[in-house]
From TrEMBL:
Species name: Rubrivivax rivuli
GO MF entry, a single one: nucleic acid binding
InterPro entries the record matches: RNaseH-like_sf, RNaseH_sf
Protein name as catalogued: Exonuclease domain-containing protein
Domain of life: Bacteria
Lineage: Bacteria, Pseudomonadati, Pseudomonadota, Betaproteobacteria, Burkholderiales
């Protein structure tokens, strides 16, 4: 009897919610899901120079600036936690241009260097399978019963969608 082929590991996925878009925006929440399914989510307390706030972004993620000030962790605490949990990993995101900029702002404020690599999901999938990702994500959101647009929820849905798409890729 041939040995069973192990299922492909799910990629580590990260998502960032921000104060808005554009040059003055900054990270306000970081969520990630590890390959084994463990997840974490951290609110980021705005640093002194981080003043931009976009009310339309707040309507999407539902996080108020006062909540961040009261319950957020410092950029250094969040950066240290990310380095501890993600060290040596390639971590995937679906909004690389924004997420990379926000992650860079977080680590710059913390005075640290990321000990992991942030990569676009496009590095995992060819164009045909990348085109399947949005539908797979909508299905994952429905299957998981996610109601809130938050970083860890978005990361979990993306990881599940990637698993479905990668599973299709490996099955054919």
């Amino acid at each position: 009897m041939p040995a069973a082929v192990p299922a492909p590991a799910l990629p580590c996925v990260l998502d960032i919610e921000a104060s808005g878009f554009g040059r003055a925006s900054y990270p306000i929440e970081v969520g990630y899901v590890l390959p084994d399914g463990r997840a974490a989510c951290m609110l980021v307390r705005p640093a002194e120079g981080w003043t931009h706030w976009d009310a339309s972004a707040e309507q999407v993620h539902g996080i108020t600036r006062s909540t961040l000030c009261a319950h957020g962790r410092s950029a250094r605490d969040v950066a240290e936690a990310l380095n501890r949990d993600l060290a040596g990993l390639t971590v995937y995101c679906d909004g690389w241009a924004h997420d990379y900029t926000w992650l860079a702002a977080l680590f710059e404020e913390a005075g640290l260097r990321a000990q992991f690599k942030l990569e676009s999901v496009g590095a995992l999938l060819d164009e045909a399978h990348l085109n399947l990702l949005d539908a797979a994500r909508r299905q994952a959101v429905a299957e998981l019963g996610l109601q809130r647009h938050r970083a860890s929820n978005d990361a979990r849905a993306l990881q599940r969608a990637l698993g479905a798409v990668i599973g299709r890729t490996l099955a054919h």
